[in-house]
Amino acid sequence: MPGSCVLRNIMGMMTYMVDAWLSRTKGVALGVLFGVGVLALMLTGCEQAPPPPPPPSKVVKTEPPPPTEEPQEEEVEVEPTPTYEYDPSGRREPFKTLIVEQIPETPDLLVTPDPEILRTPLQKFEVQQLQIVGIILGGLGDYARVIAPDGESYTIDVGTPVGKNEGEVISIDEDKVDVKEILRYESGKVEEAITSLYLNPGEEEGSSQ
């Protein structure tokens, strides 16, 4: 250490002074040599003094960092998706073909009258084939005179069977005769038709209702 080295130097100086003093008394040369040797030894010992050991290093205890808390994910409430139900009412079927097969309609034909029902000559002809040539209205009844396609003349009154389709005279006026017929079709449909035969067909042609 520096303090001990200084102490040695002081002791060396004192020794040197003693030696010098001795050298004066016993011999100058011997004292000088002894003093130089002692001084060299002291200087050598001072220079070769080992350095002080380094202070022990302090061990710094490091604490581990506190655990980091992971942020918790917030739970997001998901609303349920509404269920859609397809309502086909009032809408066209998307997978149905647009090409519709056109089925021709079968005409509803009239049923051919039974020949056994045609008992009078006027039932052999169509109502429209008869021609009114005269009408008589009186207290004894109303009558009309008609000509058939066969050229014969016939007298008719209310209730006389006329035509192929169960026709019958239902009224006689001063200018026309009304005949009602029953029309029967193959489909089973039944209709009533009234045909008017006029006295002057040029003014008013026969018509069906």
Give an overview in words:
The chain is α+β, with helices and mostly antiparallel strands. Among the domains are: 46 residues; 94 residues, SH3 type barrels. 22% of the residues lie in helices and 21% in strands. The chain is built from 2 helices and 7 strands. The chain has a 4-stranded antiparallel β-sheet with strand order 4-5-6-7, with no helix packed on it. It has a 3-stranded antiparallel β-sheet with strand order 1-2-3, with no helix packed on it. A hairpin with a 5-residue loop joins strand 2 and strand 3. Helix 1 runs antiparallel to helix 2. It is rod-shaped. It comes from candidate division KSB3 bacterium.
Which tags fit this structure?
209 residues; alpha+beta; SH3 type barrels; 4-stranded antiparallel sheet; 2 helices; 22% helix; PilP
Structure summary:
The protein is 22% helix and 21% strand.
Q: How would you summarize the topology of this molecule?
A:
Elements: H1 2-26, H2 28-47, E1 131-138, E2 141-147, E3 153-156, E4 168-172, E5 176-184, E6 190-198, E7 207-208
Antiparallel strand pairs: 1-2, 2-3, 4-5, 5-6, 6-7
Which topology of the domain at 115-208 does CATH recognise?
SH3 type barrels
Largest sheet, spatial ordering of strands: 4-5-6-7
Q: What oligomerization state is this entry in? A: single chain
The mean pLDDT is 75
Got a strand count? 7
Which of globular, elongated, flat, extended, rod-shaped describes the shape? rod-shaped
Order of helices and strands: HHEEEEEEE
Termini gap: 154 Å
**Level-1 CATH class name of the domain at 115-208:** Mainly Beta
Helix content: 10-25%
The helix-and-strand class reads alpha+beta
Portion in beta strands: 15-25%
How would you sum up the major sheet?
Answer: 4 strands, antiparallel
- Calculate Rg over CA atoms: 78 Å
Region (Disordered): 49-91
InterPro entries: PilP
Protein name: Pilus assembly protein PilP
Biased composition (Pro residues): 49-69
